[in-house]
Amino acid sequence: MSAPAPLAADRVGRDGALRLRFECRGTATVVTGWRYTLPLQALAPVALDDPSAVVSILNPTGGLVGGDRLSIDVEATADAHAVLTTPSATRVYRTDGEDATQSVKIVIGPRAAVEWVPDHTIPFAGSAFRQTLDVEMDETSRLILVDAFSAGRVGRGEAWQFALLDSAVSVRDRRGWLLHDRFALRGKDTAWDGLGYAELHPYFATIVLIGSFNRQQFTADLREQCPGADAGRVGVAALTRGGLLLRCLAASAPELIGTIEACWGLGRRALLGLPPLALRKG
Predict the structure, then answer these.
(1) CA 144 to CA 163: how far, in whole Å?
(2) pTM of the entire structure?
(3) Where are the domains of the chain?
(4) pLDDT band, very low/low/confident/very high, at 196 (cuts 50, 70, 90)
(5) Does 1 score more than 50 pLDDT?
(6) Is residue 43 within 8 Å of residue 82, measured between CB atoms?
(7) Where are the beta strands (DSSP E) in 26-120?
(8) With contact defined as beta carbons under 8 Å apart, do 172 and 135 qualify?
């Protein structure tokens, strides 16, 4: 681990950077590049009964405030398999000034796989958050990506009270675009919870599955596994050049988490031939 160049005094603790590189060594994936600047940090890989290297990304300051700028770069080289997660939900606090921003860039090499599965983001009332997730992948690589949010501190009656929530997901390979998806929700006066929007479901997620797999079988399995009243609503759309885009709506945090875990588990089986991964979170 090494530290990047020093920051200006007024940006210390505000500009967080994390760089991770994963390589395949024999039958295992190992972390061969690791550097960070607070308020970003990565924990040591977790030993699980799985071929992947599982790394948790965290913000030890407790959350994002206005003006924070976070940058995450992940590279999985040929045949590597990385799982990136977080220990808990990410909080974004109220701001009267600048937006908080997070940019994530993921590069996936030939036959490699990356699973980006952080817990959901909670935008507090009056918060402003912008995020970009950019993925460059090989035509033989595989991707599972989760981008999940609550509408705010729902239990405190603060749903949809943020000033700005903006998230964009872009995926490309050498042939060009595979996906570009973005939402930008502004202001607390719009009825985001109404008909045609979240429809009384203050938890929502986008899930992306890209690689070579049987999309029809995945969709059938999803219908069988998430049919009940306790499961969130899931919509499935096929991407033009392979892969699926899933939209999830849920009435509660446990419902959102359960729905994401069901989709993720089915995605692992379809894309990677692996069983669901039980992450050890306290």
Answers:
(1) 29
(2) 0.93
(3) 14-212
(4) confident
(5) no
(6) no
(7) 28-37, 41-42, 53-58, 69-76, 81-85, 90-92, 100-108, 113-116
(8) yes
